Automatic annotation (TrEMBL):
One cellular component (GO) term of this entry: endoplasmic reticulum membrane
GO MF: dolichyl-phosphate beta-D-mannosyltransferase activity; metal ion binding
Similarity comment: family membership: Belongs to the glycosyltransferase 2 family.
Catalytically driven reaction(s): a di-trans,poly-cis-dolichyl phosphate + GDP-alpha-D-mannose = a di-trans,poly-cis-dolichyl beta-D-mannosyl phosphate + GDP
Protein name (Swiss-Prot/TrEMBL): Dolichol-phosphate mannosyltransferase subunit 1
Amino acid sequence: RFSGIDFEIIIIDDGSPDGTQEVAQQLEKIYGSDKILFLCPPGTAYIHGMKFATGNFIVIMDADLSHHPKFIPEFIRKQKEGNFDIVSGTRYKGNGGVYGWDLKRKLISRGANFLTQVLLRPGASDLTGSFRLYRKEVLQKLMEKCVSKGYVFQMEMIVRARQMGFTIGEVPISFVDRVYGESKLGGNEIVSFLKGLLTLFATT
């Protein structure tokens, strides 16, 4: 129970073919809809999640266990320690790392982060990861400012946060490649990322 922290779990399924719906519905039956809320909306998951979140902080993570829940208490401790607006999981700092990726995926991820560091100097070590804790009102303000989609979105969230003066802490995490389903990363996503990076470079 995270040492008395009151929490809820909101599962948002955007049409994933990996059985997310069935698992989420079973969890809702076991734990009750006051703790497990399952949504299946079209469109941006973050926006729908924020509408139903009742807490002061929101932790966003992938539901395929690529992001392990064991790091959540560390996110909470880090936030309290520095009163941060955002705590971001990082694969590229301390004892963080990536497991299960082939060389191509590692090179793409490292290359994307390197280019971002050189062009934008965001002050955070992992720009493309999505395992993060946000102060709720900060997430709402960032969502109003961010216009990117796909992989660029995570990067823009951090860049805009720095631009708006929000504070960011980092927690090293171990990222494990998904066991079920497939990554959506392809040539089109890489081109979109590069376009988004250049757009941010020109506008920030």
